[in-house]
Specification:
Layout lengths: L3 E11 L13 E13 L14 H16 L2 E5 L4 H8 L7 E4 L5 H18 L4 E11 L2 E5 L28
Parallel strand pairs: 1-3, 3-4
Antiparallel strand pairs: 1-2, 2-5, 5-6
């Protein structure tokens, strides 16, 4: 089987409080591209279908999650005081807030994307594993997560956190 790669564009906003960057402490947005690569569970062999699974089956939930839940989401750390505002004044909008342990950096986002896509692949019984997640935050800043720099078993994220689940969640509310 050949490795598969696909890209999706989305808009998001975030703010970073722990990094102590005055510029990033103000909510601001990015138009980002996420590119994911899936490695096949076995090598390519000619067959009737010549593929491990139809592209549609592989991309369906991932694209739905990006388009319907990640696109135009606000990314906040779990301790951000803005969450208190939304809980009190706009609770209906909590479903549009993606939360993170610590600051919602692009590095944290890439790791969460890895975990969520892995959950979708496993839940759907697809013969692939995630081998790379690449997020282009700006035309000059890209974060790349691979097995060489990310170990899900050692990443320190709570076992019950939303990225581990094969549902459409972006937070634990």
């Amino acid at each position: 089987m050949a490795a598969l790669e696909f890209t999706r564009r989305y808009a998001m906003a975030h703010r970073l409080l722990a990094t102590k960057s005055p510029k990033c402490a103000i909510p601001h947005g990015h138009n980002e591209f996420v590119t994911v690569r899936l490695a096949p569970a076995s090598t390519f062999r000619f067959s009737d279908t010549n593929s491990a699974a139809p592209f549609e089956a592989i991309k369906r939930r991932w694209h739905q999650w990006i388009d319907e839940h990640v696109d135009h989401a606000l990314h906040l750390g779990e301790s951000d005081p803005l969450l208190g505002y939304f809980r009190e004044h706009e609770p209906a909008r909590l479903s549009q807030i993606m939360t993170f342990q610590g600051d919602p950096t692009t590095e944290a986002l890439a790791a969460c994307f890895w975990l969520k896509l892995s959950a979708f692949v496993a839940n759907d019984g697809l013969p692939f594993t995630v081998s790379e997640v690449r997020i282009e935050e700006t035309p000059t800043n890209t974060v790349i997560v691979t097995p060489e720099n990310f170990d899900p078993a050692q990443c320190g994220l709570r076992a019950s956190a939303w990225p581990w689940r094969a549902d459409m969640s972006i937070n634990d509310f």
